[in-house]
Write a structure and sequence with these properties.
This protein is mainly α and 115 residues long. Helix content is 82%, strand content 0%. It has four helices and no strands. α1 packs antiparallel against α2, α2 runs antiparallel to α3 and α3 runs antiparallel to α4. The longest helix is centred in the middle third of the chain and has 27 residues. The protein is elongated. It starts with a helix and ends with a helix.
Length: 115
Amino acid sequence: MTFLTGLLVFLHLVGAAIIVGTWIYTMKRPTVSPGQFHASLLSLVTGLLLVAIHEMGDGDVNHVKVAVKLLIALAVAVAAFVGQRRTRRGETVSTGLAHAVGGLALINMAVATLW
């Protein structure tokens, strides 16, 4: 179980790194890539699996923190979905939408570490 938890944490961090890294890379011309959408789904699924594993074990789960992180993660996924659809259609992605994806992911990382 320790290996599985470690693997899920690793994948969770990789997903967050892809979202924020792509956001920083495209900061001069803000856009949303399909990779950010897939990374948001990766982070969302691995986060839910980590909570499930901790619920099954003896670990104490802060449900308020999990709820806040889940809401932010869903907002990131929805914004990334809308942005990547616009990118695929050749439409321009608004600066606010592109910054929402990266900024909310960064806020979610801050909630995870500082709360």
